[in-house]
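[recover] target loaded
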């Protein structure tokens, strides 16, 4: 059955995928609430944009450091067990943030405790991403990968949309400590969902290889595949330079002269656009001209970031963030589908690990870059510079990766597409 003619609810009809979907919703909601709470709390404690950038770096460094090994583990062990363990650790770190905030004295010790908890969650995320990527292909038949990607994107974007708004209102009404408690409850519900998944990983062990040999095999696969490598590289640099999420507390406070609720609305704007995009793509999947659409979507994202940096009107900025979310939603959908279809099952963990280094952690490193750029260039010039760099990256990718530029998703459903 051609994917473009598939039932838009095909993936969600699978019981274990429904549990995975709900589990991702709950953990994403929890992490988003945590993120806005940490951001505003750190800004109130320090008033330093560099400290906001350090939040992302503190989580990204452990995640990057463990990712390749975690990918190896996800390709030789039970992915369901790895996912459960990672969610459990994240739940504990959010609970610790609640405890630190409620009982620790404000000052250096509180800041140290917060950053330590974030670093531990980075290790957990390093294992979670490769395992959940592989677990999805264990649960969902190949012909429904694109549909599952759309549902996954919907889960992420809807919760990324609701999380900041909910976090902002909870922070204003209850304070940081109780907001962390609410996030802990949501993370616990995610753990329950993952505990109920019954599907086990079925991985054929073709040979007994060392950890380093398995990791090198995964790296060779990624770097020899022009489409996967170009997609990862483009998003790495686009997100690295094009994001302004870490600076939203400063825009909210110093440009728009508003508080945490407005910050939550701004953080939710991008997921709003991406949510509607994901919903549309469930019923109207992209099958032709996917490469060109991907390039235009990332370029449009960069243009939106330039406009956001130059805007001094809250509502104009809000609209630009929504449009950037629409374009980002297209990019996420295409990337997820491409990676699932082009990657053999026994290499899903390692490819997802490389993807985490290229893209997943680039969000956090991008936050650090934004903080550093803001410190030395100023608020507006740093965002405009990032948007311009995104356009440059897209231009380079368009010329250097012709296979990505000519890509059609429907061509990837042939068995030959996964040959190594």
């Amino acid at each position: 059955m051609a994917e473009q003619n598939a039932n838009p609810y095909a993936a969600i009809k699978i019981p274990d995928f429904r549990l995975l979907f709900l589990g991702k919703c709950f953990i994403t909601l929890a992490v988003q609430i945590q993120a806005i709470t940490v951001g505003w709390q750190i800004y109130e404690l320090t008033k330093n944009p560099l400290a906001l950038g350090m939040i992302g770096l503190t989580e990204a460094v452990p995640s990057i450091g463990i990712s390749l090994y975690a990918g190896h583990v996800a390709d030789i062990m039970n992915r369901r067990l790895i996912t459960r363990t990672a969610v459990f650790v994240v739940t504990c770190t959010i609970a610790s943030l609640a405890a630190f905030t409620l009982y620790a004295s404000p000052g250096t010790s509180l800041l140290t405790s917060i950053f330590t908890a974030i670093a531990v969650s980075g290790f957990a995320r390093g294992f979670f991403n490769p395992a959940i990527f592989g677990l999805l292909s264990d649960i969902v038949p190949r012909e429904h990968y694109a549909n599952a990607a759309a549902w996954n994107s919907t889960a992420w974007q809807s919760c990324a949309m609701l999380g900041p708004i909910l976090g902002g209102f909870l922070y204003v009404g209850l304070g940081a400590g109780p907001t962390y408690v609410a996030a802990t409850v949501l993370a616990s519900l995610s753990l329950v969902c993952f505990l109920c998944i019954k599907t086990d990983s079925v991985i054929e062990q073709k040979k007994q290889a060392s950890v380093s040999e398995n990791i090198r095999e995964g790296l060779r696969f990624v770097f020899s595949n022009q489409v996967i490598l170009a997609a990862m590289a483009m998003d790495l640099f686009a997100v690295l330079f094009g994001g302004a999420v870490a600076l939203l507390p400063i825009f909210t406070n110093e440009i728009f002269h508003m508080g945490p609720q407005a910050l939550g609305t701004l953080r939710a704007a991008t997921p709003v656009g991406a949510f509607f995009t994901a919903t549309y793509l469930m019923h109207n999947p992209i099958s032709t001209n996917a490469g060109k659409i991907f390039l235009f979507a990332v370029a449009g994202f960069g243009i939106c970031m330039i406009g956001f940096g130059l805007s001094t009107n809250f509502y104009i900025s809000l609209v630009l963030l929504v449009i950037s979310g629409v374009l980002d939603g297209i990019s996420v959908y295409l990337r997820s589908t491409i990676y699932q279809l082009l990657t053999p099952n026994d290499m899903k963990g390692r490819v997802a690990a490389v993807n985490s280094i290229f893209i997943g952690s680039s969000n956090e490193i991008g936050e650090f870059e934004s903080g550093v750029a803001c410190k030395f260039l100023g608020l507006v010039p740093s965002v405009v510079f990032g948007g311009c760099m995104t356009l440059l990256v897209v231009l380079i990718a368009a010329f250097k990766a012709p296979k990505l530029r000519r890509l059609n998703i429907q061509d990837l459903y042939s068995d030959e597409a996964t040959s190594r």
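[recover] notes: The chain has a mean pLDDT of 81.
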